[in-house]
């Protein structure tokens, strides 16, 4: 079973938000998931365990960098 997660990362209090978003996209590329980059959000599709591990690791990584951010995650119905 695959899980579909739509991610919206909004860096706050930064001078270069595009750079922060690009860093996040490069980090996502390390996982065995399909990535679809949209204008306002990114969709990842992959095995459920991989998607949830990805979410946890990304959140922890962003939190360690001591920057303020908003991270919206929307989970869609599992695909086959």
What do these coordinates show?
Helices cover 36% and strands 39% of the residues. With 80 residues, it is α+β, with helices and mostly antiparallel strands. It has a single domain, classed as Alpha-Beta Plaits. Strands 2-3-1-4 form a 4-stranded antiparallel β-sheet. It is globular and about 40 Å long. The relative contact order is 0.34. The model has no long low-confidence stretch (mean pLDDT 88).
Layout of helices and strands:
Blueprint: E1 2-11, H1 17-28, E2 34-37, E3 42-47, H2 48-64, E4 69-79
Antiparallel strand pairs: 1-3, 1-4, 2-3
Short précis:
The protein has one domain: 2-Layer Sandwich (Alpha-Beta Plaits), CATH 3.30.70.930. Helices cover 36% and strands 39% of the residues. The chain starts with a strand and ends with a strand.
Keyword list:
Alpha-Beta Plaits; globular; 36% helix; 4 strands; 80 residues; alpha+beta; 39% strand
CATH topology: Alpha-Beta Plaits
Rg estimate, integer Å = 12 Å
Terminal residue distance: 5 Å
Q: Tell me about the biggest sheet? A: 4 strands, antiparallel
The multimeric state of the shown protein is single chain
Poorly predicted runs are none
CATH class: Alpha Beta
CATH architecture: 2-Layer Sandwich
Give the helix level as a range of percent.
25-40%
> Hey, roughly how much beta strand do the residues contain?
35-45%
